[in-house]
Amino acid sequence: MKLDSKQCEAVLAVIDGGSFEQAAVRLNLTPSAVSQRVRALEDALGMPLVVRGRPCRATQAGQRLMQYLRRAQLLEDDLQADFAAGHAGPVSIAVAVNADSLGSWFLPALAQFLIREQVLLDVTVDDQDHTYTLLETGLALGCISTERQAMRGCVAEPLGNMRYRCMASPDFRKRWFPRGMSREAARRAPVMAFNRKDRLQADFLLRHFGLPANAYSCHYVPASEPYMQAICLGLGWGMLPELQMKESRSSGALVDLSPRRPMDVGLYWHRWKVQSPRLERMSETLIEAARQVLT
């Protein structure tokens, strides 16, 4: 069967907007008209595509449709750009990136490419252990993830390791770890976590001190710069990427609590095997740059 473009557009708008009302505003239609288009496509395919909730989300079949539609749109945009001899408008590419990569090497690695190729980034930030899900559900065309195994139809390219160190302010170390980092001191000292998906500190404490996740207290600060600022202010200790803290470390604002115990997190770039020429070139640029800055 041939997919109806207006019906597909309605499904995408509902998933992206989270509701039929938001989709209606985006498409300049009534919510009822959007609902009719979504229902017509579901009837044609013989399966539900949208879970009606707050927010609306894609079913498994809807996720597969979104994967196809986003890739098809990017291929069409690239083709139009070729026919227009480079005079077509910019192309938007949705990617999922972990906050530490976004806050350090990711944008410098792609800046010149994005300018030259007229690419607009649509970035979703999530923990590196969870960005894979965004590619799987069709919300991204590429992602940086700790997952080594590529899902069907995709490839996973190793980027390198992002090295993290256990950092705190000098005053915090003096207050909580005057004799060094021990199990009892680590149990009492407050921890800085990025969010509830962030496993770095938990993995460090479990691996080196046998402390489970409920054995210590945590702050949660889900933004890269405020997270590092909170550590510099002495609110807690946390795992920071070497790439982000060179100045703070050299100035003495941060000290390494456990210099012989760095944590390396392997990162991979996941993308579809069949992709547009522009996304292919972006992937090549990203991989080359990452391998120069990551350990």
Automatic annotation (TrEMBL):
Q: Which residues form a coiled coil?
A: none
List keywords of the entry alphabetically: DNA-binding, Transcription, Transcription regulation
KW Coiled coil (keyword) present: no
The family database entries (Pfam families) matched by this protein are listed as: HTH_1 (PF00126), LysR_substrate (PF03466)
Q: List, alphabetically, the SUPFAM superfamilies matched.
A: Periplasmic binding protein-like II (SSF53850), Winged helix' DNA-binding domain (SSF46785)
Q: InterPro entries, per this entry?
A: ArgP (IPR017685), LTTR (IPR050176), LysR_HTH_N (IPR000847), LysR_subst-bd (IPR005119), WH-like_DNA-bd_sf (IPR036388), WH_DNA-bd_sf (IPR036390)
Residue span(s) of domain HTH lysR-type: 3-59
> Does the keyword section mention Transcription?
yes
Q: Which GO terms describe its molecular function?
A: DNA binding; DNA-binding transcription factor activity
Per the record, the similarity remark reads: Belongs to the LysR transcriptional regulatory family.
Protein name in UniProt: ArgP/LysG family DNA-binding transcriptional regulator
- List the taxonomic lineage: Bacteria, Pseudomonadati, Pseudomonadota, Betaproteobacteria, Burkholderiales
